[in-house]
Each structure stands twice: as structure tokens, then as C-alpha cells.
Amino acid sequence: xxxxxxxxxxxxxxxxxxxxxxxxxxxxxxxxxxxxxxxxxxxxxxxxxxxxxxxxxxxxxxxxxxxxxxxxxxxxxxxxxxxxxxxxxxxxxxxxxxxxxxxxxxxxxxxxxxxxxxxxxxxxxxxxxxxxxxxxxxxxxxxxxxxxxxxxxxxxxxx
Length: 159
Hints:
Largest sheet: 8 strands, mixed, barrel
Number of strands: 10
Order of helices and strands: EEEEEEHEEEHE
Low-confidence stretches: none
Strand order of the largest sheet: 1-2-3-9-8-7-4-10
Mean pLDDT: 97
Distance between the termini: 21 Å
Strand content: 35-45%
Structural class: mainly beta
Number of helices: 2
């Protein structure tokens, strides 16, 4: 399996080992655009891998902070109570860069920037940028993707 993410198209393609399309998902990348630097709140480009899969036994809409479930389950009411929160829901695919000096190590390290593919509230619009660096995807699509990929899956993010 391989994941290709197009920032321009705001889509994630899951490909088999023969590069044939298995599934296509709409995503939401960073509202600040693309970039590698720590603190930029941009989506990093280049070759990555899925470093870790987090949350496999958690209910849909589980709220994560620092990759740990908080015990909360997202609801519109919880969203209204905390309007400024960056909601990381349901599952996390934690990415790690593979290109030293570009998206790995130093001030450009995707993993140390905590860049994920993660679920988001149903009210979040997919197909347009809006995150603070991560790749947002609907919870329904994330559950499907999460079950199909393994730790070590290649992820290419292109502008």
C-alpha cells in the first residue's frame, strides 16, 4: 500500500503495490499552505511514512490531546464549549519524514512537528485547506483508511 496526498486537489489516494487506486478521500490540509519549518503551521511536503497508528480501540469521535484519549467524545455541544480547540478525533496516523534536511531532523522534522492524518468533526469542510498543519479527514473515511494501512506505509505529499 501507498498513500499519495495532493494539496492542490485536497485529496488522499490509497494505492496498492501496483500503484492502482483503491480509494480516494477528500482531505483538508493547512490553511497556511505548505512548508517544512517547525512553527509554520504548514503541511509538510515530500516522502513520509506512517510512524504509528494510534487509537485503534477507541470509539468514533474520541478526542485526542498529545496522542492520548482525553476521555471526551466529541459532540457539537463540546465543540461550542471549546470553539478554539484544534480537534483531533477518532484515530491518528502519525507521519515521519524520510528526507533528512527537508522533512526529517532539525527544524524541519515532520514527526517532531506532530503532523498526523486524523479525524475531525463532521462540521469541518473537506476539500479546502483549514488545518494547522495536519491532514484532516472525515471520521468515516479515516476508519476505512486506518484499517487498510500498516505502520511503515509510504506517504507522499505533493503540492
